[in-house]
Give the backbone structure.
Amino acid sequence: MTEELVPGEVISHHDMCSAVGVSLQKGMNFRLRGGPILLMSRRRGAPYDDHVDESGETLIYEGHDCSRTADCPLPKRIDQPERSPKGTLTENGLFAAAARDHTKDGLPPAKVRVFEKIRAGIWVYNGIFDLVDSWIDDSSGRRVFKFKLKLVHAICPFSTVQSSAQEQEDDRIIPSWVKQAVWKRDKGKCRECGASTSLHFDHIIPFSKGGSSKDPKNIQILCGRHNLAKHNKIE
């Protein structure tokens, strides 16, 4: 269950699938027992243009192309589909319909769990987001779906007290380029003990105490044991 995962936790694809209870074979997954899941990537060469704003709290997620088939040999040249050839809603259509339920009918936004790929086989749990809007954009002459999601703040189990909105800011997304730089610098291991499992991206100076999420010098990799021991203190 992803309730056991913490935003910033590093996880393999196998363990990610075990945590959510399903084998994730595609990036957009709406009809899952535990709720919708999106897989994103900001790596060079990523197939879709996912974007996180400067605040680190808003994700703009690009919809997905049709699968490459004899009828669709060049997916990047045609509009992203809302419906399949059989008329059923695609994942684009399901997420768009959920967004319309919120924006048009005032229903509560869908809660979406988001994982981010930082390198082959390595993912980071970014937390739970509200799906608040969707629209169609023009991209090189074709129509693509865009989805707006906002981070849901939650009490971080590694903090002793987080009663104010400012203190809960620790959970905001660390930018992708920072995660990739820190992973390379720390060689995918805990800086305290060298462990390579149960890893987390950690603020050296917590955000609530003025530490930056956008400076690799303020982010480190810790194992779960050392992350738990650190809590929300400046060492």
